[in-house]
Design a protein that fits this description.
- The protein is mostly helical.
- Helices cover 73% and strands 0% of the residues.
- The protein is built from twelve helices and no strands.
- The chain is globular.
């Protein structure tokens, strides 16, 4: 049974979910250390950031995000399964639709995931803000509740937003803006406008993964009444939309480096766009949507690679 729930958790999606946390934490940890150095030593020369892997904020943020992602995957399996959306889907098998996990068992798994994730999230909030920033604590608790609600409402219920074409908006907001800007704020307790540029990049790449998934499932989604954005705009426009998502993500990241330029290592993230460029060529030539299934992992892992390389490039 544990093996079945691990399959339902879709572990291959986890690297994508933490990409924004990696970017925001690298930048936030670096900027917060710089501010500390200025204040303590009365100088503009930074002594350097503590290694990110030593930060409890970083690891708690990673665990919280993984919890939200697993909850989203459970809810997606449950919601699509009870509606019959996954009965004839392409790609990885869904556990509720196939009868391997019952709806009741999946609902229990969702409840356990919600409780455990909230515990980790509350610990993160306390470590980041302590007792002196009650307003920030309330704000981030509200954002945590919003993340849980968004994870569930994607496919669960009559008003599931994934069935009305708004999935792209929520992925962009939660995987991009909230993930990057939120994790940056946990370290620095402030926001500057430039942090939104890499947040846009991660959000657009994450949305590209969803768009690719919806392109693959377009025919089946259309039959069962799941009106994703791809179903609404059609296969041809979905391709152009996909090109925009990848290219725009590159431009926002490039603009950030130009504004914050200090040394050439900041362009390290360009390596991640080599497989993404090959992916775009594949999409251009693709005429059989089922073949896009193999591209999902490539884009997700490229986004994860982007997060690591972009973060490292800005702090080295």
């Amino acid at each position: 049974m544990i093996k079945n729930f691990l399959q339902a958790a879709r572990l291959r999606t986890l690297p994508l979910s933490v990409s924004g946390i990696i970017v925001g934490s690298f930048l936030g940890n670096n900027d917060s250390s710089f501010k500390f150095s200025e204040s303590f030593f009365n100088t503009t020369v930074s002594v350097g950031a503590n290694p990110i892997y030593k930060s409890p904020i970083f690891w708690l943020a990673i665990l919280t995000t993984i919890g939200f992602q697993v909850l989203s995957n459970f809810a997606n399996d449950y919601g699509d399964g009870i509606k019959g959306t996954d009965d004839n889907r392409t790609g990885e098998k869904r556990l509720v639709a196939s009868g391997v996990i019952s709806p009741k068992q999946m609902k229990l798994a969702m409840l356990i995931t919600i409780i455990s994730t909230l515990i980790v999230a509350l610990t993160l909030i306390f470590v980041a803000f302590g007792k002196d920033n009650f307003g920030y604590s309330i704000l981030f608790f509200a954002l945590g509740v919003a993340s849980i609600t968004a994870a569930i409402k994607y496919t669960v219920g009559k008003s599931a937003y994934g069935y009305s074409g708004f999935g792209d908006v929520f992925v962009f907001l939660f995987f991009g803006l909230l993930s990057v800007v939120g994790s940056y704020f946990l370290f620095t307790k402030e926001v500057n406008f430039t942090i939104f540029l890499p947040a846009f990049s991660v959000g657009l790449l994450s949305t590209a993964v969803l768009n690719l998934n919806n392109m693959r499932d377009r025919e089946n989604d259309k039959k069962v009444g799941k009106n994703t954005l791809v179903v609404k705009i059609g296969a041809d426009f979905a391709k152009y939309y996909h090109y925009y998502l990848i290219i725009a993500s590159f431009l926002f990241a490039f603009l950030y480096v130009v504004i914050q330029y200090k040394n050439p290592i900041q362009f390290l993230f360009l390596i991640a766009y080599i497989p993404l460029a090959k992916h775009l060529l594949f999409v251009v030539k693709n005429s059989h949507e089922a073949d896009l299934d193999g591209e999902l992992k490539k884009v997700a892992l490229s986004t994860f690679l982007f997060g690591i390389l972009f973060g490292l490039g800005q702090v080295l």
